[in-house]
Design goal:
binds molybdenum atom; binds ligand MGD; Dimethylsulfoxide Reductase, domain 2; Rossmann fold; alpha/beta; 755 residues
Length: 755
């Protein structure tokens, strides 16, 4: 899926600090490659600034008012990838059939550059051919109106979509009469939302940057910081310097869990002075996080018998529910089980528990290493259990802090992308917009794929993203998409989802974050919400990649007018001036009161979180301890727990190169990182070709062939490799019963030498 390698594969340990000059060089290389040195450099200064500029589309880490150049290598790569001078034109589509493009690798598809005009699939010639915007909207409108039921269409959202576009999109979908709204969150942080909602009544984290700057202990679980949330490195280094303790929990010791040089700290760059980013690394086995957390809680509770300060009885008494039962559960969980399931020694777990006990304020942070598991919800609820024991909630420097993925994935949910919306949300939306929303729950990602496969969903709309390649069980998903009457993809670049299409298919090209969005009332801004619930404006300034591009709100408005000719929603009027959309949002959405004024403050505004104020919207009105038993994550002998993850040079399904600098890999993506003893047992040497077979929950088997084994410091019987290369191994039935999230980190695999 990456580019054709430019040389033989290499694997050398990475021995430098994270970020620093390696990152600076990485930025320069990518700007040179995209021929965007001047414009790109200028863009850096416009990114993540309090006084305007655009929000970096790279990740959802919050912006910091005090950091003047709050950028990172991967954010820059991402921006340059969008700002490329290359164009995918009608001539390009005339030259290549869709079948031919299907054979290209995913890197090369996107490397053709920005899409320039709407295209429609012509089955007679197997080419995409130009279509006017009006005809494209009409094709969508006619097809949707010819369906027997609105539930025969499903509307996907990728987490890049702005709040304003999101709001209009969900309004259109609900006016059409369905809640079929799968989104990338279904594969990402669904477990976090569900767990936090159940435990503390608010489905998002409670921390902000100030908390990160004042905490005394930070636990970072299942995040590859230096690659996927690089701006977090600044806060790790700063925390370390002021004496806070940092514990990383990850089967791999990632570069961000060692030391770093922060690029905007010029003196450190010049003197090459690195700052450690970790006090303790716990190499948990895949899926073993909950056992570790239970062990920490058990230790803290044991100490509380003699040390009254080990827990916070007043907090527990006043704000929580279910403590006694949880205490008993911890007592009843044996250390043997905890050690076996976590893959960690009791002594190591005690070390983490001591750090937790000795800190007055602790933050526990997590990402996909925790969520994409069968027991993701239980594990995150265990995170909250542990925090509650010492009252680490509702006060400065403490709390749960999930690291979200896409730059506006949190905002998408806040603004209504939800396939099972609450009654309260719909009531308010209906009142503000004069519509009657459907009340029955809609389809999520897995449900949509199943329904397309059965023929129950006939129209698929992808608002951004790359659904075909991001979803599990690619072959099954491809087949399901191909059964559709119509597939519509709103995109910036050519990708797999355009080539795996319905009988009719549209590619609708849109403006990117960096580009100027000119409407009747002038240049428009949109807003996004980061991982810490801050909502702020983003305004692009670059000339659009093509005159024919429309903004995402304008595309939604066009689709809506065609599909809902009798709608009383002022779709066109909204697009003339996005302040009008925001005025409606301020009436329809909780926390967005006085939206237009508040969002124009220097760093925007923070959405109020009841749990932060110790108001718990749970059935008991208190924070609820969860008493789930430890899951058994150990596999029978011979099987390996296999996880899929990102390399340093990719952004989800967008692959920039075949390198993974921090893991020391060059020219190779079809690999599997293995423990050397597991390799020896299987007669494997470095770069031995292997076949990997997974067994799905329903017993079906899937294989990939001739991947190369790479010896790596990873726990026994655990292995990891890259998405999307390993995605064909995830069966559609392999999703968590707690979160409906695909098990992207926890496959049951056999790895054998390829002969
Ligand atoms: N540059 C860049 N930035 C990105 C993205 C990108 O692709 N590129 N993607 C964005 C998106 S959408 C998201 S959701 C985030 C993803 O950010 P991450 O969650 O960092 O994503 P992954 O690469 O999947 O890495 C998962 C990490 O979890 C670890 N892990 C695997 N299994 C376990 C386990 O059982 N327990 C624990 N504790 N750890 C485990 C892996 O070793 C790895 O370090 O990043 C966002 N930011
Ligand atoms: N095996 C495996 N699979 C995974 C994961 C995993 O860890 N393992 N992670 C999952 C996760 S966390 C996520 S979030 C999903 C990601 O799933 P998606 O969000 O669906 O996928 P992306 O790769 O982020 O989408 C890339 C495409 O977005 C389009 N794009 C880029 N910018 C814009 C824009 O501004 N507007 C519009 N309209 N389009 C734009 C481009 O055409 C580009 O090709 O993948 C999931 N899939
Ligand atoms: Mo994600």
């Amino acid at each position: 899926m990456g580019p054709v390698p430019s040389g033989p594969p290499r694997a050398h340990p990475y021995t430098h600090p994270a970020a620093g000059w390696g990152a600076a060089k990485g930025v320069l290389e990518v700007l040179l490659k995209e021929k965007e040195l001047v414009a790109g450099t200028e863009a850096v200064f416009r990114m993540n600034q309090a006084d305007g500029g655009f929000d970096c589309p790279g990740c959802a880490w919050p912006d910091d008012e005090t950091v003047k150049m709050d950028i990172c290598e991967n954010g820059m790569k991402h921006v340059a990838w969008e700002m490329t001078h290359k164009r995918t034109t009608r001539e390009f589509f005339a030259k290549h059939t869709v079948s031919e493009l299907y054979e290209w690798n995913d890197h090369d598809l996107e490397a053709e550059g920005r899409l320039t005009e709407p295209m429609v699939y012509d089955p007679a010639t197997d080419h995409y051919v130009p279509i006017s915007w009006a005809d494209a909207f009409k094709l969508f409108g006619d097809t949707v109106r010819s369906l027997d039921s609105p539930h025969q269409a499903s509307y996907y959202t990728s987490g890049r979509l702005s709040n304003e576009a999101t709001f209009l999109y969900q309004l259109m979908v609900r006016e059409l009469g369905t809640n079929n709204m799968p989104d990338c969150s279904n594969m990402c942080h669904e477990a976090s939302g569900r767990a936090l909602k159940a435990s503390i009544g608010t489905g998002v984290g409670t921390c902000d940057l100030k908390d990160w700057q004042t905490t005394e202990a930070l636990f970072v679980m299942g995040v590859n910081v230096a690659t996927n949330a690089p701006r977090m490195l600044t806060y790790l280094a700063e925390a370390y310097r002021r004496g806070a303790k940092i514990v990383h929990v990850n089967p791999l010791i990632e570069a961000g869990a060692t030391e770093t040089i922060i690029p905007h700290e010029i003196i450190d760059m010049i003197t090459m002075r690195a700052t450690p980013t970790s006090n303790l690394n716990l190499q948990v086995r895949i899926g073993g996080d909950m056992a570790l957390l239970r062990g920490m809680a058990k230790a803290v509770l044991e100490w509380s018998a003699t040390d009254p300060k080990a827990i916070d009885p007043e907090f527990i008494e006043r704000y929580t529910q279910g403590f006694e039962e949880y205490k008993r559960l911890c007592q009843d969980t044996s250390w043997d089980d905890i050690e076996a399931q976590s893959g960690l020694s009791r002594a190591d777990i005690i070390k983490a528990a001591q750090i937790y006990r000795d800190a007055d304020r602790s933050i526990i942070s997590w990402c996909l290493g925790v969520t994409q598991h069968e027991h993701g919800v239980s594990t995150i609820r265990e995170i909250v259990n542990l925090l509650l024991l010492r009252g680490n909630l509702g006060r400065e420097g403490a709390g749960p802090s999930p690291v979200r993925g896409h730059s506006n994935v949190q905002g998408n949910r806040t603004c209504g992308i939800d396939n099972h919306p609450s009654e309260a949300f719909l009531d308010r939306l209906d009142e503000a917009c004069g519509i009657t929303s459907p009340r029955e729950a809609g389809l999520d990602t897995i449900g949509t794929i199943q329904a397309m496969s059965r023929g129950d969903v006939k129209v698929f709309v992808g608002m951004g993203g790359n659904f075909a390649l991001a979803s599990p069980d690619n072959m099954f998903t491809y087949d399901a998409l191909r059964r559709c009457e119509l597939t519509v993809q709103v995109s910036t670049k050519l990708n797999r989802s355009h080539l795996v299409h319905g009988k009719k298919a549209l590619i609708l090209p849109c403006l990117g974050r960096t580009e100027k969005d000119q409407q009747k009332a002038g240049a428009q801004s949109v807003s996004v919400e980061d991982s810490m619930s801050m909502v702020h404006l983003s305004r692009g300034s670059k000339r659009p990649a093509s005159k024919q591009l429309l903004s995402e709100p304008a595309i939604v408005s066009g689709l809506a007018r065609a599909a809902l000719p009798d709608s009383e929603t002022p779709w066109e009027w909204y697009i003339e001036d996005y302040d009008r959309i925001r005025d409606t949002m301020s009436k329809a959405l909780y926390g967005f009161e006085d939206f237009n004024r508040r969002v124009r403050g220097p760093m925007g505004f923070r959405i109020r979180q009841p749990a932060r104020e110790l108001v718990f919207l749970t059935p008991s009105g208190r924070a609820e301890f969860c008493v789930d038993e430890l899951p058994d994550v150990l596999l029978e002998p011979g099987f390996i727990s296999l996880g899929t993850m990102r390399s340093h040079d990719q952004w989800n399904t967008s692959i920039y190169s075949d390198n993974d600098r921090y893991r020391g890999i060059r020219n190779l993506r079809t690999l599997v990182f293995m423990n050397k003893d597991d390799m020896r047992e299987r007669g494997l040497e470095e770069f031995s070709p292997v076949n990997i077979t997974t067994t799905a929950k329903d017993g079906s088997k899937r294989s990939v062939y001739n991947f190369l084994a790479v010896a790596y410091d990873v726990p026994r019987s655990c292995a990891l490799g890259y998405m999307p290369e390993l995605t064909p191994l995830i069966g559609l039935c392999d999703y968590s019963l707690q979160s409906d999230q695909p098990l992207m980190k926890q496959l049951k695999a056999e790895i054998v030498a390829a002969v």
